[in-house]
Amino acid sequence: MMTPDDGQHLDPDLLAALAEGHAAPDDAERARDHLAMCERCRGEVQWVRTLREAAAGLPREVQPSRDLFPGIRARIQAGQAPATAATPRAPRRLVPRFHAGWLAAAAVLLVTVSSAITLELTQRRATGSDGTAPAAHSGSPGPELSGGVLPAADPAGTMAAAWRPTLLELESALSRSRDRLAPETVEVIEGNLAIIDQAISEASDALARDPGSREALQSLNAMYATRAQVLRQASGLPAAPEESLATRLPGTPQPNVKTMTMTMTLPGQSASSPTPRGRPCLLALAAGLVLLPAGLALFPAGLAGQQIRPIEVVRALEAGATVTLETLHHDIRVERWDRTEIEITGSYDAEFEEVITDGDGRNFRLRVRPLEQNRRNRVNRVQDPLRVRMPAAATLDLTSVSGSFFVDGGRGEFVGQTVSGSVELAGTFSRARIDAVSGRVQVLGAADELRIQNVSGEIRVEARTPRVEAQSVSGAVAVNSGIPLERASLASVSGRVSLTAALASGADISAESHSGDVTLTLSGALDGAYRLGTFSGRLRADLPGRTGETSERGRFTPDQRMTFTIGTGSGRIEASSFSGSVTLRPGG
Amino acid sequence: MMSLIPDPRTRPPVEAVALPSPLSNHAPVGDPVLRARDGDLDAFETLYREHGGRVMALCLRMCPHPAEAEELAQDVWVRAWEKLASFRGESAFTTWLHRLAVNVILERRRREGRHRARFESVAETSTHEALPSNPTGSALGFPGVRLDLERAVAMLPEGARTVFVLYDVEGYRHSEIAESLGVAEGTVKSQLHRARRMLREALER
After folding, report:
1. What does the alpha-carbon distance between residue A559 and residue A579 come to, in Å, rounded to a whole number?
2. Secondary structure letter of residue A295 according to DSSP
3. Which residue of B has its CA nearest to A13?
4. pTM score above 0.90
């Protein structure tokens, strides 16, 4: 239609239709005369054509900065729901985080058991648990199997056999790279594997006593999945950096190729990825650190004269800038100020390491890294932290191997990764994501969204946050949210899990531990459907207004489950522990 | 293993982008898909190796923060694994995957609650808004144009960028985009005009 917007020009929809070649013939006919005379409309049609051609010519494929599949595989095997898991209000299992893994395991078990029976029937031969079970990762993402699984005579053995090929493969991969790992990293990894093995043996024992226990089977599978994940991360190496450089989209800092290649052995491998995230990435960091020769720390101090030099960097930043800092050993202390520039001070050992800055006022990056030629025979002896002062709104991305982070103030996004360092965060962040291995993580202040993963360290959150996700293997997880909590997913293997919160209406809360107690102290909008479960612990719920309470025990096992509803049941609250107690009580 | 820098000439001609199934390459439902559907994670990895770059490209354009885009891409693949059982082979796997990817991305955005606010705030299309700066100074038609365009797209406001990417880059229809976003078709069109106008200002300055 030719509705001129000011009496002279063609309607934008018609111009677009003409440019895209699908204007109705009548309209096209009538437009032709106008186009012949009107340069502006002609230009508009031409522009849309040119733009669409250019758009069509954009690369259809872009490689990520690192190989994403190890992380995908780990999540699939660990049964972790995707971060977007937005399956609306479907009935949910008791142990959410390991759900898919559980199903996969159930499928494996079913397959294993069925095959065993088939073998038995067809070949009249006893089945051995000699590692011939199908690989654990052959689990199907298919339909729910709950209730349909035949109890195997030896479920723990069957499960172990099912996981064995995967774990063996991963262990041999790790042993190949072990000599490249720094001793402290090996220690961290081994210490944590021992924790997981302890959990495996507990769950196996329980399953041996009570072969029908779903809780125990579920926990056992979750532990195997966690073990596989830790092994995979510890032995995994990131994608070649050249790849990521070649395929990066513009708009992010472009370090030079030489720098990139050298960065390969640096923690985080993040030359091409300003904010590497996630535990896989973190352990890639551990694995990266690992590439640093173990002998590095053995070099006799004092043999080479130190060349301690100051770091003094001041840069103007644009609003909403991203600041990335990477270092091997420095602690990083961040304060915010109301100026628009960033100031970084500290010192480094010029004989051993170098300081590289790149990027611009939008994406600024500073790295302290070992010199290529000195990597094998120098050890850093600088103990000063990097002190950073920067605008509050800037996004901050910190990576260190042994350094700790102390961040005071801030309004932007925060991403921090460290292996043996701890993290203390205070400020008001839009999002904060922290990955640690053995350090303690503490968050004060406020964050719209928090995601924390730790292995052996404790996680403590005393912050105003509506959404929090926190997981540790052996550390305790304690969250106290000062504002109405909308979503929380808290988990630990051997640590206590505790949550103190006022719930927002329709809150989605899950808290689980393997051997630790789970305690939820709740107030606010308690309206919701509650599910509690344990294998050998105790269940207790003292919340007011409970209706439709059911409490069941496994017919042949000590499994206990409790469900009840408060109000209309709009929220979902789930808490479980394998051998610990689960307690829900009213808060103040 | 695909090449690192895909040849843009392998793109379909412009007319073809208006097809509803932009990524459809009419690939038959091959072995890996069936095997992955049956729970074979190695087969699933094969699918990832083959199609990972396409998913990543989409995620990066919809969400120009590289680390977040990588996280999104992982979410897409984990979801693909979970949903693979529902893939019936009625469309090409690439088409199915692409739609799934779009849904995962939009879903995440909805969850984060930013989406609606952005869409509502831009419905009126102010005439004075402009992208922050001319990315490089060179205009369309010159070498490097794709890089400039990529950069300029990344700087678009989220609503305009989403519609531009889905319509002009990925080739979805107005109606499909409107449905996915839960907005009126008119809103999609006005966002598209807005995106195109802002890109013109940014690239012709």
Report:
1. 10
2. G
3. B189
4. no
Residues of chain B neighbouring A244 (CB-CB closer than 8 A): none
Q: Could you identify the residue written with the tokens 């993402």?
A: A141
Residues 6+ apart with CB under 8 A from B41: A73, A76, A77, A137, A138, B81
The separation between CA A170 and the C-alpha centre of its own chain, rounded to angstroms, equals 20
Mark yes or no for CB contact A59/B8 under 8 Å. yes
Q: Give the residue carrying structure tokens 């050249």.
A: A242
The 10s digit of each residue's pLDDT in A339-359 is 899 999 999 888 777 899 988
What distance, in Å, lies between the first and last C-alpha atoms of chain B?
A: 39
CB contact under 8 A, B38 and A140: yes
Which residue from A215, A243, A174 is spatially nearest to A537, judged by alpha carbons?
A215
CB A521 within 8 A of CB A499: yes
Structure tokens, A540: 């207790």
| Cα B204 to Cα A404, B61, B136, B152, distances in angstroms | 47, 21, 10, 11
Of B4, B12, B41, the CB nearest to A243: B4
Distance of alpha carbon B128 from alpha carbon B131, whole angstroms: 10
* A85-119 confidence digits (pLDDT tens): 333 322 222 222 223 333 333 333 333 333 332 22
Q: Which of A20, A84, A103, A430 to mutate to test the interface with B (most CBs of B within 10 A)?
A: A84
Q: A540, A580 in Cβ contact below 8 A? A: no
The pLDDT of residue A463: 92
In this prediction, residue B134 carries a pLDDT of 36
* CB contact (8 A) between residue A75 and residue B74: yes
DSSP state string for A445-484: EEEEEEEEE-SSS-EEEEEE-SEEEEEESSS-EEEEEEEE
Q: What is the pLDDT of residues A504-522, one digit of tens each?
A: 999 999 998 888 899 999 9
- 3-state SS of A325-354? EEECCCCEEEEEECCCEEEEEEEEECCCEE
Q: How many CA atoms lie within 13 A of A455 on its CB side?
A: 32
Contacts of residue A453 in chain B, CB cutoff 8 Å?
A: none
Q: How far is it, in rounded angstroms, from Cα A292 to Cα A35?
A: 67
> Which of A135, A90, A91, A142 lies closest to B82 in space, CA to CA?
A142
* B199 in Cβ contact with A54 (< 8 Å): no
